[in-house]
């Protein structure tokens, strides 16, 4: 993916592939708002940030996608903005003219607000200006891929924008089309600072009311059945795992497809360090999946003598049976890599 010309902080991200001949609406399209530069100024958006000088030939270059995993890019902003969705008879909020309201509440055909677009194009000055002017409900708008501005700010690692959105009291638990909350994305992209902000930002700022239920559910699963601790374990990110546990994550939470706990996942990944970390922090060594397999079943089945030894020293039961009536001892029979000598203790040969 090529780098976009309109901002030095734009990043390459996996999955940001555009279809031929398409380009997104972009910050430059602020000029297409009614009144051009005047409209942007009326909305309180700094012109220097909204309309930076373009490099020669930059107009023909590709821009970043409007979303982090989308192939559909929004077209240029129309010359005539649609009227705001609010009742035309209502007066604009105090302090805002109707022209400012129309500019700030614009939504593209892909569902992106100006806040989405400012974040996508890494123009935090514009994003922060819009956040300061807009109510929480507008800041929680999800685009066509169900991404809120907070999702994008986490994905593109923009801490100042994340902080402003959290202080405005936005819902931290909204899920995108893959079921990921912003915290899921922080774990997936291994953004430890972003995760710290999200976990420290559950209390509203002074003078800001946060709706009941707008808290961080650390056991919430995405559409793959993964909670944040599952994702961090699969990534082998010990600092992120530690942060989640300190924030109240359930160390034995089961993923939704087969009932694996983080300990099962660490064993499957042959991650000895993660296995030891989870056991030291109280993970249940004999937790069973939906099919009855324990972490020791998985270690023996994968011929991982080192991890089987760790589990054994932590008191793993070699005689627990899975749904196929097999014990870890049964799986070890005829296995030249791992040998279990009759129940406890476990003797292993590498």
From TrEMBL:
GO CC, any one term: cytosol
Residues annotated as signal peptide: none
GO MF term (any one): NF-kappaB binding
GO biological process, one term: cellular response to tumor necrosis factor
Alphabetized UniProt keyword annotations: ANK repeat, Repeat
InterPro entries xref list: Ankyrin_rpt, Ankyrin_rpt-contain_sf, NF-kappa-B_inhibitor
Keyword Repeat: yes
Each ANK repeat, start to end: 145-177, 178-210, 224-256, 258-290, 291-323
Region entry Disordered, spans: 1-69, 78-97
Pfam families: Ank_2
Composition bias type Low complexity, residue spans: 34-59, 78-87
Protein name: IKBE inhibitor
């Amino acid at each position: 993916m090529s780098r976009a010309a309109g901002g030095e902080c734009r990043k390459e991200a996996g999955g940001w592939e555009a279809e031929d001949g398409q380009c997104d609406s972009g910050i430059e399209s602020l000029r297409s708002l009614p009144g051009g530069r005047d409209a942007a100024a009326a909305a309180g958006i700094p012109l220097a940030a909204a309309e930076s000088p373009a490099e020669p030939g930059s107009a023909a270059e590709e821009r970043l996608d409007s979303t982090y995993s989308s192939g559909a890019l929004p077209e240029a902003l129309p010359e005539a903005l649609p009227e705001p969705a609010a009742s035309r008879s209502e007066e604009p909020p105090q302090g805002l003219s109707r022209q400012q309201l129309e500019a700030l509440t614009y939504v593209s055909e892909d569902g992106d607000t100006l806040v989405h677009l400012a974040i996508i194009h890494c123009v935090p000055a514009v994003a922060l200006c819009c956040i300061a002017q807009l109510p929480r409900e507008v800041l929680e708008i999800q685009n066509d891929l169900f991404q809120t501005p907070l999702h994008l700010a986490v994905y593109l690692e923009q801490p100042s924008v994340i902080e402003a959105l959290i202080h405005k009291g936005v819902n931290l638990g909204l899920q995108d089309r893959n079921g990921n909350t912003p915290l899921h994305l922080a774990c997936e992209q291994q953004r430890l600072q972003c995760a710290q902000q999200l976990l420290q930002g559950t209390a509203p700022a002074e003078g800001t009311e946060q709706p009941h239920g707008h808290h961080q559910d650390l056991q919430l699963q995405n559409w793959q059945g993964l909670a944040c601790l599952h994702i961090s374990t699969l990534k082998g990110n010990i600092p992120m795992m530690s942060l989640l546990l300190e924030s109240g994550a359930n160390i034995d939470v089961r993923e939704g497809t087969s009932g694996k706990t983080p300990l099962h996942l660490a064993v499957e990944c042959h991650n000895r360090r993660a296995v030891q970390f989870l056991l030291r922090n109280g993970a249940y060594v004999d937790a069973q999946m939906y099919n009855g397999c324990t972490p020791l079943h998985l270690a023996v089945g994968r011929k991982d003598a080192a991890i089987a030894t760790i589990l054994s020293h932590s008191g793993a039961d070699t005689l627990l049976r899975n749904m196929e009536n097999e014990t870890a001892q049964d799986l070890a029979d005829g296995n030249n890599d791992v040998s279990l000598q009759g129940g406890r203790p476990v003797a292993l040969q590498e």
